[in-house]
Design a protein that fits this description.
homohexamer, 155 residues, alpha/beta, 35% helix
Chain lengths: 155, 155, 155, 155, 155, 155
């Protein structure tokens, strides 16, 4: 059987403990996981692309089966270009579910050979989102329990 | 019994196969359906009002019981001005439902003589939204299965 | 245009103020509404079929466009037999929505010519269900604000 | 037992009948309620901070156990500074619930000694939000049934 | 201000870590909490009333402000009889929310002087329900992490 | 990397087109899928265990990587016994999601080495459940579009 490659797409503004949980738990399923950091000229980010990529690279520097890349355009086109048959996504709550369902069904409409695989975010991290991390950080709160260990947003 | 007139309000930025499905299936219920395209100075659209109106007119050019108009202001005021007793809305998922419930209850508070009637978007179109069409179009994807046949966003 | 006939199916064990609200507000949409009281040998009811029918007949005795009938079997078959093109249903909350969506899509699969039309239960009655009425009644509570005026469950 | 102080945080742009309902019904639970009006340089409001504070002060001018203050920064830090052990929040619908759950769990992570207490918005006000009030007001609709009596948005 | 008494009603078949979490965290809000164990002749339980009461009494034996009683009939009637102005409930997820909302609105309809107060179950216990504990116990699984420490279902 | 084995547990009373869709689409992810048909003395089924197993075996007779077995007891214990590291589940709607989340988190509590992997049921089958198939079958409706081709419930 050929290699199972999954793309984990997102903004990662910044990476959270929830993202880390999903990626770590997906490693036994796939042979390779490409973390795909979207950059979209029309969106504004708190952390620029280089910072978002660097934080993720730092977190997974010891894991050779995980790579980090930036992309723009349709996620399914990026998957095709990388030879990935799978998109990996985490589900935290029913609102996530509705949103992810629409995206996954659009992706399948655009490219029927790519399947979206979902894992559940662990209960103790399910409240964490990048937007909550940004909010705590902006107000000077202690964000360290919300991000993977070693992540320093000020550096 | 007097004529049953329904208003189907929205931004239609642009019209989708989901909108088309709801309007087509509502024809047996009402004598006349007015597609009411909102224009709101405070919002920004991908397609301008003329384009949004023209796409809808093209799609329903053969159906004399459907008309297309632009409006601004409260939807219930537009209904009253047009002699419409009904607002028609489609429901795709629970998130839609919560949003539509608040709008419908506000409308009833403002004008108790106007009733909102809901149809379910067909399962195979329920993931489609104008925002998803815009996203696919912006990235150069093939949007034709997401809009009514004959809709050309580039023209 | 031919007559618009709707079937409003349910157990009505017993009829509630929520049912009454939906039926009353649907009268301007349809020419005739048939309240279809299901009887299912496999289910157990608090009120027997005769009582459930009698309560509804009493409530709508002044409205010639509403009739009450019992049925068993598939709802779409009952609609066909009665010449009804529409099924009327009320929506109270997102849980209702999911349940009703599955039923409506099954009915469309079984008979594509029958459309399900939804109205929103008024906010002040949306918490009421037959099961809540039965629970209050069983414990000797005052159920009168939960059912249409004139309904006497003890008679 | 020491005094039970609750903070009720929000934008209040403007205060609605839903806010009023929650605060009034929370009075028997707490000894003191501080309505905390957030001001965030990054957000744009329809009504400025002074107007938002003045409307609330006017509404609760007769209730000595309720005070109104503005704040910025983390809500848990404001609570600590005020000696409040409780955050009060209203729940209207399942979408509210998901959102509030994430906020409450973040707050507990940041400060485990502060508890969030929820009340349900009364059914007849549950569709009201500040955003709906702004929308009706912007289009010249009659907003008076959506806000506490005596609130004049034009003054 | 008079004493704040809350009733925490349920089947407790058996008590879970989720129940324990809600009750413990509610202690700073109320002066007294009465855990009210329902017994309903029409329902079947895995653990009989005596066992369900004994498990709870054991768990809270050191807390003089918590008492345990059985009841039947309407919860609001039991509250009135005990002089309790509050019903305490935990919320775990959106499905809980819809269910609890209907119950709370019925209770308010039956007795407007009794308020339902909600706390959020801690994220790490939110998946636990009595039904899941029974399922694990029935199949011989290790249920000890799902119930308060010291609870022995076999005794 | 060792073989990836997934267990797909359920009652399959009977197997539906929704089950078939999930299993077919999961084949590229796993090396082997074991369809695990639960039998529980406390539950009543429309189709007996032999019939439920036979229908599934018939549907997948050409696929050597899929096997069918019955089991009772905890699903995680069955997985361990079979050397499966994964549980496969389909998600149709938000209500499914909440239910599946509680089960998955309980399973992780019981055995942290087993991961639950979710796929989304295709939109056009998402309304189908075994309970809807049983309902249509019981009333003599045409169930063939609801089950995999070749499934004959009368044989």
């Amino acid at each position: 059987m050929s290699s199972r490659i999954a793309v984990f797409p997102g903004s990662f503004d910044p990476i959270t403990k929830g993202h880390f949980d999903i990626i770590s738990r997906a490693l036994p399923i796939f042979d390779k996981i490409i973390i795909a950091v979207g950059h979209n000229a029309a969106k504004s980010y708190m952390f620029d692309l280089e910072k978002r990529l660097a934080l993720i690279q730092h977190v997974f520097s010891d894991e050779p089966r995980i790579s980090v890349e930036s992309y723009h355009g349709l996620t399914v086109d990026f998957c095709e270009q990388k030879g990935a048959q799978f998109i990996l996504r985490g589900l935290r709550n029913p609102a996530d579910f509705e949103f992810e369902k629409a995206i996954a069904q659009t992706n399948r409409q655009l490219n029927t050979s790519i399947e979206t695989v979902f894992l559940l975010t662990a209960a103790r991290y399910a409240y964490i989102s990048s937007s909550i991390v940004r909010d705590v950080y902006r107000h000077g709160g202690d964000y360290r329990d919300l991000v993977p260990s070693g992540v320093d947003l000020d550096k």
